[in-house]
Amino acid sequence: MIPRPLLELDEIVVEYPGNGRLKPGFRALHGVSLSVAPGETLGLVGESGSGKTTLGRAVLGLAPVTAGDIRYDGRSIAHLTRRARRALSKDIQVVFQDPYTSLNPAMTVMDILTEPLLVTGVSRSEAERRVQALLDQVHLPEDAARRLPREFSGGQRQRIAIARALSRGPRLIVCDEPVSALDLSTQARVLDLFVEIQEATGVAYLFVTHDLAVVRHISHRVAVLYRGEVVETDEATKITESPDHPYTRRLLLAAMVPDPDRQAQRRAERRSMG
Ligand SMILES: Nc1ncnc2c1ncn2[C@@H]1O[C@H](COP(=O)(O)OP(=O)(O)OP(=O)(O)O)[C@@H](O)[C@H]1O
Fold this sequence. Notes:
This protein is α/β, with parallel strands linked by helices.
């Protein structure tokens, strides 16, 4: 039996409001449908401006959904009250792109990681115990808890952000370009951490990225967004090796490949496509 999707987007439209005559409204998503199964990683790719971040924000209740529906575990979440949205943050979490701005610079790692637990009534001693387990899970040393974010590298800060997202045991994490600000070797280690955590906890990821190498590394399936519409959804290997849609092929050809022979081949292919 196919498990019920954890997350379902059903023909969602996101329209940013305008500002009278000064600024017209803008429709960023035009009826997008996709689903994420429990424990699955759905990569979301597309060029700049295609609507990837908007889609992730819609799932988090941060972008105006003007039509269609978003369901989490079968329940509509497109238009929740603030209170219901806060309650849902136990289940749906986010890791943003920039580890330099997403952590409060004035808080120690201990405070950053205990905060989401304390607000839900967990005792301080229990919260601090859980922080040690979280630091272990993201492979940071125990003494990291006493330090401030500025004392860590970009990759380590992203590990702190991941630990914070994990603190209440979510079933889905929206990852918005979470490795794009990191250098290549750090990217690979952080991606491996995402995979390791998924294997250990069964968490699902909606993984937004513009980078096909990243999406290939991390995803089970990939949805390709083009000008606010999903043009193709398929297994990650199919999308990254033999995509059906011409836009996906172009995206693939534009992707950076380090192998010069492959690069030359891609250049020739691109020329022949016009
Ligand atoms: N708050 C907003 N108000 C009006 N338009 C917006 C707003 N946020 C995004 N947009 C527009 O919606 C479209 C999609 O933006 P979005 O940031 O979702 O794309 P993206 O694929 O994530 O791009 P990037 O990879 O550059 O971050 C863009 O044309 C953008 O200008």
